[in-house]
Amino acid sequence: MKTLIVYFSAERGTTARAAKEAAEALGAELYAITPEKPYTAADLNWRNPLARCNREFMAKKDVPVSGRIENFADYESVLIGFPIWYGCAPLVVSSFCKGYDWSGKKVAAFATSGGSGIGKTAEKLRPFLPGADFKGAKLVYSGAEAAGLL
């Protein structure tokens, strides 16, 4: 069974560390979800109502993604990782998900967070994974915990 871990990580790198640990534990391949326009520290300052992260959340529009996984059909299982923003996955994650066929794939999501809970992350992410056997989303504190979701 071929497994892929895709993740979006912001400035602290917490999600990237967990994704890399999970990839090692599962023998999985790793892919970083990268927005076309990378986030700066100012973009991520959620305390500033005019910061990019707040404008994107309010607009509910796709965030263009850089790059593409050409052999996505080869993977049977996909683990998706991200930090929690506004009680759900960042819009760049759902934008990424829209670009792929999830039919028949076993999918689980893990989230890292500096303070907010998992909220309704699974419910909000599910519509972007049509046809997937979606196992849900869980807040994790380590890559080993994330690896256990698949």
Shape: globular
Total strands: 7
Percent range of helical residues: 25-40%
Strand order of the largest sheet: 2-1-5-6-7
List the helices and strands and how they pair.
Elements: E1 3-7, H1 14-26, E2 29-32, E3 34-35, H2 52-59, E4 65-66, E5 77-83, H3 91-97, E6 106-112, H4 121-125, E7 133-139, H5 143-147
Parallel strand pairs: 1-2, 1-5, 5-6, 6-7
Antiparallel strand pairs: 3-4
Describe this structure in words.
- The chain has 150 residues and is α/β, with parallel strands linked by helices.
- It has one domain: Rossmann fold (3-Layer(aba) Sandwich).
- It contains five helices and seven strands; from the N terminus they run βαββαββαβαβα.
- It has a five-stranded parallel β-sheet with strand order 2-1-5-6-7. It has a two-stranded antiparallel ribbon with strand order 3-4.
- α3 links the parallel β5 and β6.
- The longest helix is centred in the first third of the chain and has 13 residues.
- It is globular.
- The protein starts with a strand and ends with a helix.
- 35% of the residues are buried.
